C-alpha cells in the first residue's frame, strides 16, 4: 500500500508536457534526477540524434546503391556508343567498297532523293 507522501510525489514530480515526447522515456525519479542535473534536454537530443543518424545512414546507403546503378548504366551506355561507332565505321567501310566496285564497273546509281518535309 502506498502512503500519501509517495502518491503526492508521483503526481507532483511528473514531467511537464512535452518532456516525454521523445524516444527516451524516464521514470518519474529518473526524470527528477535528470531535471535537477540538467540532462533531460540532453538525453532527448541524444535520442533524436541517434534516430536522425540512423535515418541518414539508411539514406546514404540508398544513395550509394543508386550511384552504383547509375555508374553501371553509364558503362552500358558507353559500351553501346562504342559498339554503334564501330558498326558505323564498318558500314562506312563497306559503303566505300561498294562505291569503289560500282565505279570500277561503270555502274552509276542515282542519288536517293530526300523525302519532302511537311
Task: Explain what the structure shows.
This protein starts with a helix and ends in a 14-residue tail after the last helix. Mean pLDDT is 80; it is low at 1-15. The protein is rod-shaped, with a radius of gyration of 38 Å. The protein has helices at residues 4-12, 28-37, 40-104. It contains 3 helices and no strands.
Q: What spatial form do the alpha-carbon principal axes imply?
A: rod-shaped
- SSE class: mainly alpha
- Which segments are poorly predicted (pLDDT under 50) over 5 or more consecutive residues? 1-15
Classify the helix fraction into a percent range: over 70%
DSSP strand count? 0
Q: Rounded to an integer, what's the Rg over CA atoms?
A: 38 Å
Strand content: under 5%
Please, what is the average pLDDT? 80
Q: Topology as H/E string?
A: HHH
Number of helices: 3
Largest sheet: none
Spatial separation of the terminal alpha carbons: 96 Å
